[in-house]
Amino acid sequence: MKKKESSEQRRKVVIVGAGSVGATYCYALAQSGLADEIVLLDRNNDLVQGQVLDLVHGQPFFPTVIIRSGSEKDYTDANVIVITAGAAQRPGETRLQLLRKNAEIVGNIAEDIASHESKGVMLIVSNPVDVLSYVALKRSGWDRNRVIGSGTVLDSSRFRHLLSSYCGVDVHNVHAYILGEHGDSEFAAWSMTNVAGINIDEYCPICGKCSDWKKQRKNIEKQVRESAYHIINYKGSTQFAVGLAVVRITGAILRSQNSVLTVSTFIDGEFGIKDVCLSVPCVVSDRGVIRIIESPLAAEELASLSNSADILSKAIDSLKGDARDVS
Ligand SMILES: NC(=O)c1ccc[n+]([C@@H]2O[C@H](COP(=O)([O-])OP(=O)(O)OC[C@H]3O[C@@H](n4cnc5c(N)ncnc54)[C@H](O)[C@@H]3O)[C@@H](O)[C@H]2O)c1
């Protein structure tokens, strides 16, 4: 007879923050069949109860999965702890004030997770995701591989979608990455972009679909960078694609897939950069980021990566000397 699955083998995910992104991610994760148990936490207890009830009523239509509200004790045996908790910007509040507030929220959660001796991977989604991943890493005291941010996995997926529709090729045949900050200084790594294994520089001339592909590339890159602003202007926030991007990262961790994903990770000398978290191609597995792939980037791409690093360093420095000092 097959041995009963032990509790260690159960795939457990804890989501801290049951708002729009946390709940959408939970909904997508439940449908994916990747997790056996999903636990929702939020400082707004009514919200958690409501989200859990709404989700479990769909259970006959999901693969078998437990969805429930929980407590900090659930951190201990979780495989992945996803942080989507955060405060929204208030009228008159500056970006720096919001950064400090969210750094305090995420830093405290990270410290709490570490104090419960979790062996899992911490995955930060709250924005600004790169700075908050850095704060969570420092405040948890964990090894750098186990604290990661969703980084530009979402932006890379937006990039692939746009290239696919522009080139008229299935998105699954388009491999393309956005690197750097998840934000205004992010950039397309054109040197790593390929369609069906053909580097984009060779693909564009033979495709013949457009004569001005160099100009189109700039437009596509700009559209990726501005995507979130457009969605927020239309409906106030983004939730669906980010939810799916985080399910993709979660799957790589839960199934130890060694997937190459542009998560935000602590950089310690790679690409000539130090002491920031930002997105570069990483191999993601059950222990988090197990390797950084130092892709041979073009000179202008390397310059864009250092520009992102400088911007993020300044944002981290702006937290130092504060009550929430991360140094
Ligand atoms: N990284 C990405 O690609 C990406 C994409 C979209 C949104 N986001 C970010 O995700 C975060 C969540 O967005 P949202 O739209 O779900 O916001 P939301 O306001 O709907 O949800 C945030 C939730 O966090 C909870 N919360 C706040 N402090 C908490 C704490 N200390 N402990 C537990 N829960 C706490 C709130 O009660 C709220 O329910 C934001 O920071 C947003 O900018 C990131």
What would your notes on this structure say?
43% of the residues lie in helices and 18% in strands. The protein contains nine helices and 16 strands. The chain has a six-stranded parallel β-sheet with strand order 3-2-1-4-5-6, sandwiched between helices. A three-stranded antiparallel β-sheet has the order 7-10-11. The chain is globular, with a radius of gyration of 20 Å.
Class derived from helix and strand content: alpha/beta
Helical region count?
A: 9
Report the principal-axis shape.
Answer: globular
Sequence of strands across the biggest β-sheet: 3-2-1-4-5-6
- The secondary-structure element order is EHEHEEHEHEHEEEEEHHHEEEEEH
Spatial gap, N to C terminus: 54 Å
Helix proportion: 40-55%
Average pLDDT across residues? 93
Number of strands: 16
Biggest sheet architecture: 6 strands, parallel
Could you say which small molecules are bound to this protein?
Answer: nicotinamide-adenine-dinucleotide
Low-confidence stretches: 1-5
Q: Any idea what the radius of gyration is?
A: 20 Å
> Which range does the strand content fall in?
15-25%
